């Protein structure tokens, strides 16, 4: 005998499933046949353990259903999450941690767009490889699948931001710069410190220069400032997404 029950994969792969089996003697009322549950209604003598699932609990009870005697058996099984964490969750977290590293590359190298695009395409290929491991259900959708969608979307946004920062770097130095870009460029730490050599001395002294009139902000300064902010914001988003996933899956 085989049976199926609707699965709730919201917390996949940390999910537990509860299934009911109902046994009814059709055509014979409870007055003629009354099913009674034994003190130990489930016999596990022929039970075989499974590598993917473990039996957590079970119980049996008798009910009256439309005048028929009904024996209801309820059992709960829990999925073993180790395989899915290693094959799906860990690579997804690794990809999310690699994405913001493109902002550490010098913008002059020209490899930033190539690296960010490579990470995006690599994760897209990874998704096609592991799609069979994630349950295809939209009601409800798995939290792991949501995290994977957020990760590839975030990777696409980083590619777009990287292209935009590169376009700023190659702008005409004489082009007008708005106040937002001036603020970002002025926050570059090394912009406020200049090296000065005093007359008659070979010693180099660091001089603080904080006056806006003495600092010329270039598009490179703006790009350096954007890189700094994007690294902080990106890793903050990655931390929030990953922590939210594990908390929501374990509750």
UniProtKB/TrEMBL annotation:
Protein name: Uncharacterized protein
UniProt-recorded Gene Ontology molecular function terms: extracellular ligand-gated monoatomic ion channel activity; transmembrane signaling receptor activity
Domain Neurotransmitter-gated ion-channel transmembrane: 90-177
Protein localization: Membrane
Superkingdom of origin organism: Eukaryota
Residues covered by the Neurotransmitter-gated ion-channel ligand-binding domain: 2-80
CDD domains listed in its UniProt record: LGIC_TM_cation (cd19051)
Chain ranges passing through the membrane: 82-107, 113-130, 142-165, 229-248
GO cellular component terms given for this protein: membrane
Alphabetical UniProt keywords: Membrane, Transmembrane, Transmembrane helix
Membrane topology per record: Multi-pass membrane protein
Coiled-coil annotated residue ranges, if any: none
Species: Mytilus coruscus
Record flagged with keyword Lipoprotein: no
């Amino acid at each position: 005998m085989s049976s199926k029950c609707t699965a709730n994969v919201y917390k996949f792969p940390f999910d537990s499933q509860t299934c009911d089996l109902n046994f009814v003697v059709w055509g014979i009322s409870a007055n003629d046949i009354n099913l009674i549950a034994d003190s130990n209604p489930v016999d596990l003598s022929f039970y075989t353990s499974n590598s993917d699932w473990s039996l957590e609990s079970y119980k049996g009870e008798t009910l009256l259903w439309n005048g028929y005697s009904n024996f209801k058996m309820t059992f709960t099984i829990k999925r073993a999450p180790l395989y899915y964490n290693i094959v799906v969750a860990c690579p997804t977290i690794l990809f999310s941690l690699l994405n913001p590293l493109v902002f550490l590359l010098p913008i002059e190298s020209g490899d930033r767009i190539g690296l960010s695009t490579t990470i995006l395409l690599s994760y897209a290929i990874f998704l096609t490889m592991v799609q069979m491991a994630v349950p295809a259900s939209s009601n409800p959708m798995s939290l792991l699948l949501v995290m994977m969608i957020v990760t590839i979307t975030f990777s696409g946004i980083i590619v777009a931001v990287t292209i935009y920062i590169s376009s700023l770097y190659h702008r005409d130095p004489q082009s007008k710069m708005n106040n937002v870009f001036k603020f970002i460029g002025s926050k570059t730490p090394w912009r406020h410190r200049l090296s000065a050599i005093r007359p008659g001395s070979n010693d180099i002294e660091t001089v603080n220069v904080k006056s806006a009139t003495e600092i010329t902000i270039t598009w490179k300064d703006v790009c350096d400032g954007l890189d700094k902010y994007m690294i902080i914001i990106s890793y903050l988003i990655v931390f929030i997404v990953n922590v939210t996933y594990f908390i929501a899956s374990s509750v």
